[in-house]
Amino acid sequence: MSELNYYSKIASELGVRNDQVLNTAGLLDEGATIPFISRYRKEVTGSLDEVQVAAIRDRLQQLRDLEKRKEAILKSIEEQGKLTAELESRVQAAETMSLLEDIYLPYKPKRRTKGTIAREKGLEPLALQIFAQETGQPEALAESFVNEEKGVNNIEEALQGARDIMAEWINEDLDVRKKLRKLFIEEGKFTVKVIPGKEQEAIKYKDYFEWEEPIKSAPSHRVLAMRRGEKELFLMMDTGPADADALQLIEKNVLQASNSCALQVSMAVKDSYRRLLKPSMETEIRLYSKKKADEEAIRVFAENLRQLLLASPLGEKVVLAIDPGFRTGCKLVCLGPQGQLLQSETIYPNEPQRKTHESGALVKYLAEKHGIEAIAIGNGTASRETELFIKNIGLPAEILVVMVNESGASIYSASDVAREEFPDHDLTVRGAVSIGRRLMDPLAELVKIDAKSIGVGQYQHDVDQTALRNALDDTVMSCVNGVGVEVNTASKQLLTYVSGLGPSLAQNIVAFRNEHGPFKSREDIKKVPRLGEKAYEQAAGFLRIRNGVNPLDSSAVHPERYALIERMASDMGVSVKQLIKDDGLVQKIPLQQYVDEQVGLPTLQDILEELGKPGRDPREKFEVFQFEETINEMKDLKVGMKLPGIVTNITQFGAFVDVGVHQDGLVHLSQLADRFVRDPKEVVSVNQKVMVTVMEVDVSRKRIGLSMKADPFAKTSREPAAGKAVRKPNVAKRNNAESMEEKLNLLKQKFEK
């Protein structure tokens, strides 16, 4: 398939025009990034967004990989001297990797098989005669193939060899494999049981001790849970349709008569399915279901990460951050407006020391000394106790006290990044710094941590790690470039994710900044060693310089459009600086007047929007959140309580909410709203403030059940809504209990009594 055909196919699949795919592919092949393409090349792509550009990139890569595989297969078959024009045409026409491999299967180099050995014994002509299923007795046909010198000692050995050859033909039959694959997908089931004797060890997988559900509708989290249980040797899992259904399908394709030869073919069918087709299809369907489960889990993780990264920043404030603790005390750090460490101390306000007076005096002294504007408290051990202590020491009312999610802070504190930033401070200081900086700018701080450690994923260690890393990198890059980066204060890690840069250029920017002082204009960035024109083009629009020489340097307007804006300002009789400050003037700009071959209305409208709010942070405004002050531990919770909480993670089966007791509660999918909810993201997002009702508290198992319904205890009908199917997972068990024979036996016993 030619590249042009690729573009046509992708355009059809995505519902866009051919030229949009063609132009986008060209930009990608030139090294342009997804954020740059979607933001600054709208005229070229027809205003495709980041999701569409990424879809084109990924599908194009799949099709190119398919083409490479075709080339390798054709070369292999040609080297065997078996390539025909018809076979080459079939290979070239294959649109999926599975069909391509099916076509290649008969020509694929194999180890010696039963069929190979039978062919070496000269039994292929016998197999052909029997497979034709014409009249005649197989035994009579086999008689002439008995040859002790070739290792065929009797008629049965000859027939067995013929069946071995036929079994391989059936296994390699394109039509059979295609139909069987469809049967596995459409009718196949996951059938799971606990390994006998491991019931206690496998208690966390109790739901799957006797479980059955269709492959095509099994949700991602259950597929990954079953596979993990199997990998840990707690569960046994069978994958596929009923054997009888599969055999019937194959026989329908292969059997052509009802005679003695057909009986031999039927025996070959059973052997082929048991020994070759079933293991092959099971492997393929397991990979298929795993890929689907991975894609969904990765999608959920990436969306959760996006919401966490784009959480509202407090901004450039002087912050006192606390990493709370009991026995080892609470580590305090004071941070300047750019996150620089000013001072660190340790206090012991909680058990067992209870030095509340001394600790309170030190906090008040630090607050006054540094002009503290906000206090960030990590939400781990002793967080609620520390929060209560802070609120009771008499600090000025204008100082905000905020609980901060500290997931991953310990990972950061032990990382090379943290050691490089704070070589003279220990883990506790670094952890507290991370907590404080997260309050000031979550995005800038969280990019320093491996995304898998942030705690917003679902089975993240079970999914394809390369696919996960790529998806999370895409998400981080999208968020970083969507917000923009202040080049004079950004860390190397944050700059790494700027379009066109990467780790090496990010390091060069920081080194240049440290040696020569702050950048005064975007033009100065070109002076950074090894930062060429291409990298500058990709990065410049996403790098901000506050209070720079050019007022546009603090905006998302790309430098390539500066001349256009200067022309606009000149036409309006004002300077660029005056134009930016006057929203009324901006709205009067006649955009149509500036449309030309390079710049269309999409870019002009983006420019207009940016001139109206140059450099404004697109994230939502920060709002202070408070937990219920009387609830600090799980034992304080009572069924029926209504509490404020923060959504910390979203999965396919519901949302986890922090209510301030060191253990997140689960709002199940069925409890997210008073209406039917198919996807939790319809209702909630990470970091969202919600009101929940306590439904269940299990202190021993550390489980909290919550609801977001208006009246979660109201009785509802157990009947399914019209047109809704009721999922009954334990099909095997239910079918056994409800078999007709058992029903009759139960009735018989009843009447006998």
From TrEMBL:
Cellular component GO terms, alphabetical: cytoplasm
Region (Disordered) residue spans: 713-739
GO function term, MF aspect, one: mRNA binding
PROSITE patterns on file: S1
GO BP, sorted A to Z: nucleobase-containing compound metabolic process; translation
Start and end residues of each S1 motif domain: 640-709
Protein origin, superkingdom: Bacteria
Any matching Pfam family: Tex_central_region
Name of the protein this chain belongs to: S1 motif domain-containing protein
Lineage start: Bacteria, Pseudomonadati, Bacteroidota, Cytophagia, Cytophagales
